[in-house]
Amino acid sequence: MRCTSCNVEIKAKENFVIFKCPNCGKTTIVRCSSCKASGRKYTCSECGFVGP
């Protein structure tokens, strides 16, 4: 599994989060701790929603 924002393999990271897109609820968003802490944006591949 890879971070939606930076594409890093999350198995090598700690404190990652997995959640459904807050807009459509269809796509699973994965964020590593680095992207989460820095507020790096992600884009839902289903609906195009961009989140912090």
Brief description of this entry?
This protein is α+β, with helices and mostly antiparallel strands and 52 residues long. Helices cover 12% and strands 23% of the residues. The strands form two sheets. Strands 1-2 form a two-stranded antiparallel sheet.
What does this structure look like?
The strands form 2 sheets. Strands 1-2 form a two-stranded antiparallel sheet. It has one helix at 33-38; strands at 17-20, 28-31, 42-43, 50-51. The protein has 52 residues and is of the alpha+beta class. The two termini are 20 Å apart. It has one domain (10-51). The model has no long low-confidence stretch (mean pLDDT 93). A hairpin with a 6-residue loop joins strand 3 and strand 4 (50-51).
Break the fold down into its secondary structure elements and pairings.
Layout: E1 17-20, E2 28-31, H1 33-38, E3 42-43, E4 50-51
Antiparallel strand pairs: 1-2, 3-4
Order of helices and strands: EEHEE
Low-pLDDT windows of residues: none
Characterize the largest beta sheet: strand count, sense, and whether it forms a barrel.
Answer: 2 strands, antiparallel
How many strand units? Answer: 4
Tally of DSSP helical segments: 1
Biggest sheet, strands in spatial order? 1-2
Measured by DSSP, the beta-strand proportion falls in 15-25%
Residues in helices, as a percent range: 10-25%
The count of domains is 1
Instruction: Please state the structural category.
Output: alpha+beta
